[in-house]
Amino acid sequence: EVQLVESGGGLVQPGGSLRLSCGASGFMFSNYWMSWVRQAPGKGLEWVANINEDGSATYYVDSVKGRFTISRDNAKNSLHLQMNSLRGEDTAVYYCTRGTIGTPGTDYWGQGTLVTVSS
Amino acid sequence: QTVVTQEPSLTVSPGETVTLTCTSSTGEVTSGYFANWFQQKPGQAPRALIYGTNIKHPWTPARFSGSLLGDKAALTLSGVQPEDEADYYCLLHSGGVQVFGGGTKLTVL
Questions:
Q1: Which residue among A50, A58, A103 places its CB closest to the CB of B52?
Q2: E-strand spans in A1-119?
Q3: CB-closest option in B40, B51, B98 to A100
Q4: Which of A75, A76, B17, B36 has an alpha carbon within 20 to 30 A of B3's alpha carbon?
Q5: Can you give the pLDDT at residue B95?
Q6: B60-82: average pLDDT
Q7: CB contact, 8 Å: B55 with chain A?
């Protein structure tokens, strides 16, 4: 069974940093693109970043470029999102998602971890 | 970046057919955008329904189908069920970047 379990969320002050993690199990992690998607309270979904199978290629939404870094550890089946210079508008539930193989897409989602940026 | 637009809300009666659409600010949505569709119910994580414009996941109910309609991507629900009441999001791929639509709130009355 495919499982994605996010951790690392919490309350952080504006300008602060937080590192999210996603533990993957039930599939060959190193064969899949992975992504982070977020959802602000009461709002829609926003794609944040993704990373290819070996970590050599990463992409970001404009609003987080230069502040967030996506990375992965294939030996530990884990995905990470380092978030620096956090702003109030970064407050959201952050989901870890798995890409499909072959045709671009997303299949599995974690349950999410809440990040609250507030003083 | 690209802005993706969906109907904010739609209302349908059980058993009817409804089509949700997804447009891109950059122009026609083609198969090269590999449109994805997701369903989200209150308090739950999203669930994937369609990828690659019209490919269903193993768990996707048969009444859901994806397509291209004119210059848009579309999700059609044939024979809507009460449990289909939810928010629906499309996702378009452009190179390595992905963009979600604003979502459609589907009400089944």
A1: A103
A2: 3-7, 10-12, 18-25, 34-39, 45-51, 58-60, 68-73, 78-83, 92-99, 106-109, 113-117
A3: B51
A4: B17
A5: 85
A6: 98
A7: yes
